[in-house]
Specification:
Blueprint lengths: L2 E5 L6 E5 L7 H14 L1 E4 L6 H11 L20 E3 L9 H5 L18 E8 L7 E5 H6 L3 H7 L3 E4 L1 H9 L4 H10 L3 E4 L1 E3 L5 E3 L5 E4 L4 H15 L5 E4 L6 E5 L3 E5 L8 E7 L7 E2 L2 H6 L5
Parallel strand pairs: 2-3
Antiparallel strand pairs: 1-2, 3-13, 4-15, 5-13, 5-15, 6-12, 6-14, 7-8, 7-11, 8-16, 9-10
The chain binds fe (ii) ion (FE2).
Fe (ii) ion (FE2) binds next to loops.
Amino acid sequence: MSITVEAAKPRIGGIVHVDKDHLLDDETIETVRHELEQRGVLVFPQINASDELQLAFTDKLGDRVNFTRQVPGSDASSPDVYKITLDRALNSEPDYVLGTFFWHIDGITIDQPLPKATVLSARKLSDSGGATEFANLYAAWDLLPEAEKRALENLTVIHSVEAAVRPVHGHPSEERRARYKAMAAVMEQPLVWTHEDGRKSLLLGTHADGIVGMPGPHGRALLTRLQQWAAQPELVYTHNWTVGDLVIWNNQGVMHRVVPYTDEGRVMHRTTIAGKEKPGHAATEEHIQRIFEIA
Ligand SMILES: [Fe+2]
């Protein structure tokens, strides 16, 4: 056995011990696939993968997702490796990166199957802040009281980029709104996602802006409460990075955010693995309008 996985916390997180030379082995890939379902997020401490190795690992796990190319600030010279940094020399739209300070699921406002997993490696770190937190959205569902599960089961949620960056920009300019519209969709997603394997998870994040059929404030209050529930400490793994760490998470069952940092030197390299399941669809104009009504 060239790979072992130890639990980081009982309900989320695993630390993977494998030699870099065995990262692409079939046994490693099968173990990673299995453990991602169980543990949500896996850490490969100081494995020091190059972009080439990170891409090869990504390719072994599935198809590279294309939405990386649509993200503002993508580096055209290496479109499948997205640089998450506030350094304008590497990422021309660091404002978009500030949205990562808030809980989110990658790619949830793109009208395509939800990305299966995200791979992130630490290239340069900030002097303070910069840890990444992961919350288990399968466990968040499993642990809800039965009566609450019944009340939530059939609700539908509106997700938008505009909501995701509202904590960053407040009310966006018309020009910015137009750009959001060009790069993403306003999506309707089930609050409770029943995956093809029958397991259920919540779909939550700052991009969740309202519940279909509910006045805006009621929907947002419920979503805020559920987000706080899902982010309770025992369901969260916080990764304090060391340069060379590589982390992969099950983007279909985990939400994440970064502890705020200001250091423009911090650089993370992200690759994304496409999903096959598409829980939602583009929102109707009527449903979008309703979440801006207050009664
Ligand atoms: Fe993210």
